[in-house]
Amino acid sequence: QVQLVESGGGLVQPGASLRLSCAASGSINNFYAMGWYRQPPGKQRELVADITSDGTTNYMSSVKDRFAISRDNAKNTLYLQMNGLKPEDTALYFCNLQRRLPGLRYDYWGRGTQVTVSS
């Protein structure tokens, strides 16, 4: 069993920064990747950034120069530093842990933290 709990969301003005945190607990060893997804109002969930177990990072193009994903293995915590926030970054942000077996993928999700960017 895996538990993921997000925190750090809020209402901010355009240009502000936020840092999201995801505290992971349970059977979190041997994962393929951890990441952040977001779901804007009325839209599909999309990958924002992820980091594999060997530290390789991947970002969606619209956040690549503004967001940074990182992981503190000692604290079992995943972070997303978000700078230069824009109104289009408004969404419910979810933490994800992914496991892979040959031909299979398992996803675990947190409940999400709301980020609203508005003047």
Topology:
Blueprint: E1 2-7, E2 10-12, E3 18-26, E4 33-39, E5 46-52, E6 57-59, E7 67-72, E8 77-82, E9 91-101, E10 104-109, E11 113-117
Parallel strand pairs: 2-11
Antiparallel strand pairs: 1-3, 3-8, 4-5, 4-9, 5-6, 7-8, 9-10, 9-11
Account of the 3D structure:
The protein is an all-beta fold. Helix content is 0%, strand content 58%. It has strands spanning 2-7, 10-12, 18-26, 33-39, 46-52, 57-59, 67-72, 77-82, 91-101, 104-109, 113-117. Strands 2, 4, 5, 6, 9, 10 and 11 form a seven-stranded mixed beta sheet that branches. Strands 1-3-8-7 form a four-stranded antiparallel beta sheet, with no helix packed on it. A hairpin with a 6-residue loop joins strand 4 and strand 5. The radius of gyration is 14 Å and the shape is globular. The relative contact order is 0.31.
Oligomer: single chain
Class inferred from helices and paired strands:
mainly beta
How widely separated are the two ends? 40 Å
- pLDDT < 50 runs, ≥5 residues: none
Can you give the helix content as a percent range?
A: under 10%
The strand count comes to 11
Distinct helical segment count: 0
Overall shape: it is globular
The fraction of residues assigned to DSSP E strands is over 45%
Characterize the largest beta sheet: strand count, sense, and whether it forms a barrel.
7 strands, mixed
Average pLDDT, to the nearest integer?
Answer: 95
